[in-house]
């Protein structure tokens, strides 16, 4: 019995808890990507940098707040900085839309051109962010580090394995649930949300029935930027803020959005968790886990690891390719993929 | 026509090889000013530049020639950039020799692609990969740092003394990390210890929890982190502490530094490791000289001082800045016989050499060149207590 508990705690500590937090961060990112795709019909590759931009503002706002002695201990100050990050990202993204994307929209440019434009925006933003904050690690977490640390858990339960739950992981999950709740309420219940969905379903019919296309686009960008800022800040808070990392995050985020069905918010959330848990569980080494649940003679000598952790991103890639081959429209999408 | 061309060439050769009049000699300082070890590079460069300034100001060097350092960025990870920087130092700045490069991968690239084709002598203060012991170098490459084969043995000794029988091992995925990890693993296993896992990690990631999960699953009493203190190594230590996977860490040379203690905090207490250092009075003298010149002597900055000093002393002994001539003198000025030379005594050494005498350069890191022109290796065993790096003893 105790062995089974140990095994459970072990896998919760090393796979389930980190996977859950990572899944939340991916889901938030994928939601932003999928919203833009639904309304503007292109893949916004600059989304990773938007996340980075939001996190950067959160870092600066946190520093300013800390310098002025503002604190909400035991919670991290970054939570107070979040509204500034959201606002800053929204302003930046709207400015980008005004200066860059609107031009191509008026030209009625091809989807492919939009994608390439977004890659250009991505590079400009990446350069801008490195110029402002530099390429290095920035740690801006403060307050209580752990809800429960591995050592405390061991002392408390007497088990051999410890379970550590970081404050940032709890904050990530709670914030994600709140953000998603608000988003789905907005899309399902409000008039503006409904008009957005109508526009996403059929652009021409929506415009004919009097929905203001410009307004819908504006709101899509706003929501996407807000989600990106939240996702980026949470990721930076939970891990550490490093501009370079967000470019790598674009792959699992797109994989999540595509697995769920591009353009489907619910699918993006599901996709986020599928990708996160697949990455974590496939690269997890089960040796010790099996050591608890199997009789001693059955325990493998090797690590019982499907793939080395170096191939974490490859997992996202394989799932992405498999989805495109087997069910190109994604798991949750009724519409055929365009 | 042919004749006059030959004449010009011979005059040029004469000019290059004749030490008969004072000139400006340039020494390249090729280190990883950007990249994973950028926090260590400035102190290393200052070490080399200190020796260069000392020689230059003495007025004894090659009939009053002055020496100036020229910096280049070897980046540590980008072999192409390192080669380009070295090529620039050699062909455009016209350096007589190079102190560098810093990381093993960059050093190998620079040696093979720039130093060998151009016939330039280089002494690395910090490249420690065992592969550099056997690399084809035409007698042009030396290092004041010991091979990691030696570091592995010392670490295995320390682990044995602490009664460790099982350890997990992770290394940064490059020439340095792989070479060091292999030498630690083989030395430790020779002593009867078990390495439960020998896994690489990539630098520059935001999240190392998956890597740590694999390490934790393999188990072990301690975790050996053959990485970089401001890159993946720090991330691994942080993630391992966060998840409660390991409490004690073994820190090889790339991981020992104030920066790590600052980043991790009190949880690091009790971890131990080694970094190059010796108990000869040279280290102390150098530390004082560094303080007087306004920099903190970090890891490998004494070695950089010694690397620059050795280059210049060898030139003095050969009476020439021609690499083909002075490369043969590097080992002879570093080893016995001769008058022992400590840091700050370079003027004295230059004078002895000018008068035809012999020197045995001891320097800041107790230099003794063995085998293929590399340091025999002195290490300082350290333990982290109350947030401070405490020296336990020298090995």
Description of the molecule:
- The complex is a heterodimer of chains A (338) and B (395).
- In chain A, 72% of the residues lie in helices and 1% in strands.
- Chain A is mainly α and 338 residues long.
- With 395 residues, chain B is an alpha/beta fold.
- Chain B contains 15 helices and 16 strands.
- In chain B, α12 packs parallel to α15 (346-354).
- Chain B is globular.
- The model of chain B is unreliable at 14-20 (pLDDT under 50).
- Classes of the chains: A mainly alpha (338), B alpha/beta (395).
- Chains A and B meet through α1, α5, α10 and α12 of A and β7 and α8 of B.
Nutshell version of this structure?
The complex is a heterodimer of chains A (338) and B (395). Chain A is an all-alpha fold and 338 residues long.
Observed structural traits:
heterodimer; A: 338 residues; mainly alpha; ABC transporter involved in vitamin B12 uptake, BtuC; two-stranded antiparallel sheet; B: 395 residues; alpha/beta; Rossmann fold; 2 domains; seven-stranded mixed sheet; 16 strands; 21% strand
